[in-house]
Protein: peptide-methionine (S)-S-oxide reductase
Organism: Ditylum brightwellii
Amino acid sequence: MKFIASPTASWVKLSSLLIIAITTTLLSQQTNAFCNLGGASKRSATSTFLQTGTSGSFIQHRSVASFLSSATTPEEEKSPEAKRKPKKGDIVTIDYSLKGEDPDFVAEPLFDTNGKVSFVLHGGNYLPGLHEMVSTMIPGESVSNICLDAGWGDKRDEMIAQVAFDEQNGLDPKTIKVGVELYLANGMKCRVTEVSEDNFTIDANHPMAGASYLSDVTLLTVENGPEADKMGYSPENDFGKNCRYEVATFGLGCFWGGELLFQRQQGVVGTKVGYTQGEKVNPAYKEVCSGTTGHTEAIQVIYDPTIISFEDIVKVATKKLGSDVYKLNQVGNDRGTQYRHGIYYHNDKQKEIAKNILDEFGEKCVTELKPAEIFYDAEDYHQQYLLKGGQSAKKDSKETIRCYG
């Protein structure tokens, strides 16, 4: 096993004893501190940016109970319905801002951090601490200067180790300086934080571990989201009582990249990934990958049709597929029935729109067009996977989507 010092790109060998020490103090923490995705990652991929718990939320957050003392409620009377607290699955719209609590904190722009945003409550995206806080508010209520964990968790002492200089290690003290980044051969990264005559200290915590945001939030509206029993197909599916939001379902090969693409679209308020169009009840990822369950990896999108139409969403999907619309059971380098592409309509209006778009590709287009069937949510660690891995989900982001794994 080796270290590599990133500024000079020179390899430095480590002794067996040091390997054991590093393995004990750092590698054993890899799952929890660097990429705890709630289970074995897809294609053994490693997420190196944000922590996540088994609940699938990608950011650990501190208690928000203290925010109640800073809440202000408008004086005007509102109806009981207008003043109800939101529940899981509701679409909430907030006006908010985030700024680093520490002046030296520089946030990576992975999601929109100010202005008016709408999202499915407890449906992923944004800060889980923000979801928790909003769930205790009523429309018109405001809070200010609330501390929310910024996403890297607390700094952990067990992620820090002291390394000795000796001839067996072959480490040249001249190349080891404070601030130098070192990489273990397996890709784990750490920084040199102290250097003495006999040894140096490395820290494998994320540089922003312990950082937090200060947030100002006003809850503007709470609206009904699509009802669970309206997520399939019916000729005139309206997605639920008093629900103005709609649902679209697509198979676009690996669901990681497709989900992030939809997250970036204006008007999309929620996404999730899962499995559909198969026979087995509640399949697991490994079973779907075997190709024996009949399912395809799929993305379900909740959107505001006054901002983005179903036609526009279908065009986003087909643009991503490109020439793969002519390839059976294949998208990019991913092959197999579990990667087949399709548009799974929820009502006849969606069917007509999707058919007209697919017809433009000619008779050789093999993209499925079928009624939506039961959608089984994928494991928590798959949800918003690329956002968890450090890729931007900001609206209108144009950064290249890297579907690594």
The mean pLDDT is 81. Helices lie at 16-25, 30-33, 128-134, 255-263, 285-289, 310-321, 348-359, 385-388. The CA atoms of residues 177 and 195 lie 7 Å apart. The chain has eight helices and 18 strands.
